[in-house]
Amino acid sequence: MTIFCSHCRRPLQAEMSCLLRSGKQVPSTPRPFRSTKSASKARRDQINVELQALRSLLPISAREKERLSYLHTMALVCLQLRGAQLFPPDLAPPAGLALGTELLSLLPGFLLVLSASGKLVYVSENVAQVLGLSVVELLAQGDTVFDILDGQAHEDVRKQLLLAQEEPGREVTFVGEMHTSKAFRLQHGGNRAVAVHGRFAALGQPASSATTVFLALCTLVARLPTDGDAGSQDDLFQSTHILDMTFTDVTESVTYHLGYRREELIGQSWYSLLHPEDADLAAAQHRAVARGAGATAGTAVLRVLRRDHTWAWLRISARRDSGGHSITCTSHCLREEEAAYLRARQHRPTPRTAAAPPPAPAAVPPAGRELSLLAAQLRALADSLSPPATATWHSLWPEPEPFHPGAHETALGRLLGNALEVAGPPTAHAHCAPYARQ
User: Fold this and answer.
1) How far is Cα of residue 36 from the mean position of the Cα atoms in its chain?
2) Do strands 172-178 and 192-202 pair parallel, antiparallel, or not at all (unpaired)?
3) Are 130 and 179 in contact (CB under 8 A)?
4) What pLDDT, on the 0 to 100 scale, is given for residue 361?
5) Sign of the C-alpha dihedral, residues 25, 26, 27, 30?
6) Confidence bin at 437 (pLDDT 50/70/90)
7) 230-348 has which CATH code?
8) Please, are residues 148 and 138 in contact by the beta-carbon 8 Å criterion?
9) What is the 3-state secondary structure of the chain?
10) InterPro entries recorded for this chain (predicted)?
């Protein structure tokens, strides 16, 4: 049997090591005993002590500190370090000028400060009113603006931030869906669309990427108010029309948004202010509201002419009153980026809608079916009243009944009356008035 050396793997004649044959003895030095478990515990204890020391320095309440996890603690510490680097204590404003909770509650959205690379530097506390998440919960998702935005908006956000960084002072706007709390998703059917409007500003001299931040205001895209707080909204106005969309009343805030006085619009047609390319969309909205198809069918994004001959984007929500004699429109002013987002969203089918389409009312047949039925009955009546063309008709069909004055009008009236009963009450048809201003 061949025996191999345990060190060099060479064949040996006996059970002996080549090291022993050469007379070289391996020094047997005792290895020190190390407890890996004890060392890991010591490192964890040291990390916990350091995290507790950092947590005690955070400018939040003691109750919030107790609820912080290690991940939330590190996220807040990094946020405070970035803020301290860009906003040194010697550049802080006086205590009387600090933003308080009362002032933040009056803003239409929350404040957001980003670094040149997109890192979060500051998020105002009223973010919970918009997204349902506190600053701590928002930072748990990530420390960049891309972590709190839906993935579909990342490319557009990068382009807008790069454009604003190349031209400091230029204001840019981008729209995207931000992640919200579970309660908000259940209430609003998903994440909320937020418009971020801001610009880059240099905080120090000389200006560099380390001292340049993006200051922005984040607002909800076209948040439609309820009936109770409609009068407190500054970015909308309301108008009342008769069924052909002629102005009968409008709020005074229309002067701020469109430049017209209230007296100038009363008696004018709503269609005379619309952009020619939006006339078909407005007519479809008008027909849907006149039929009483619901609030969703009466919402559209349209362009309206201002007094200075520029175009204003409006999200118009129309509804017919209970009496059916007038139409009330609530117009919400939009930026161009918000209007483009809403229009793209209207043409994009949602999975919920595709899976469970709303049932069509069975009592009222479609308008095209009514017209086809009426046309077929009128053709049949005309054929029955026309005289025979050739002699062959005499052998195939009996002689027509003698003509009595008034019989044709009675039959036609009876026929039209039956068709109108099926179609329901008459509706006001949309029309497009001639374009008043060029």
Assistant:
1) 53
2) antiparallel
3) no
4) 47
5) negative
6) very low
7) 3.30.450.20
8) yes
9) CCEECCCCCCEECCCCCHHHHCCCCCCCCCCCCCCHHHHHHHHHHHHHHHHHHHHHCCCCCHHHHHHCCHHHHHHHHHHHHHHHHHCCHHHCCCHHHCCCHHHHHCCCEEEEEEECCCEEEEECCCHHHHHCCCHHHHHCCCCECCCCECHHHHHHHHHHHHHHHHCCCCCEEEEEEECCCHHHHHHHCCCEEEEEEEEEEECCCCCCCCCEEEEEEEEECCCCCCCCCHHHCCCEEEEEECCCCEEEEECCCHHHHHCCCHHHHCCCEHHHHECHHHHHHHHHHHHHHHCCCCCHHHEEEEEEECCCCCEEEEEEEEEECCCCCCEEEEEEEECHHHHHHHHHHHCCCCHHHHHCCCCCCCCCCCHHHHHHHHHHHHHHHHHHHCCCCCCHHHHHCCCCCCCCCCHHHHHHHHHHHHHHHHHCCCCCCCCCCCCCCC
10) bHLH_dom, bHLH_NPAS4, PAS, PAS-like_dom_sf, PAS_fold_3
- Mean pLDDT lowest for which of 32-36, 324-328, 422-426? 422-426
The ranges assigned to domains in the chain are 83-91+103-220, 230-348
pTM listed for this prediction: 0.60
pLDDT digits (tens, 9 = 90+) for 217-265: 999 886 655 444 444 467 889 999 999 999 999 999 999 999 999 999 9
- 79 pLDDT band (50/70/90 cuts)? confident
How many Cβ atoms are within 10 Å of 121's Cβ, its own excluded? Answer: 21
Query: How far does CA 212 lie from the centroid of its chain?
Result: 28
For range 141-158, the mean pLDDT: 88
Count the neighbouring beta carbons within 10 Å of the beta carbon of residue 79. Answer: 20
For the structural domain made of 83-91+103-220, what CATH number should be given? Answer: 3.30.450.20
Domains 83-91+103-220 and 230-348 share a fold: yes
Q: Which residues contact 324 (CB under 8 A, 6 or more apart)?
A: 292
What CA–CA distance (Å, rounded) separates 241 from 246? Answer: 5
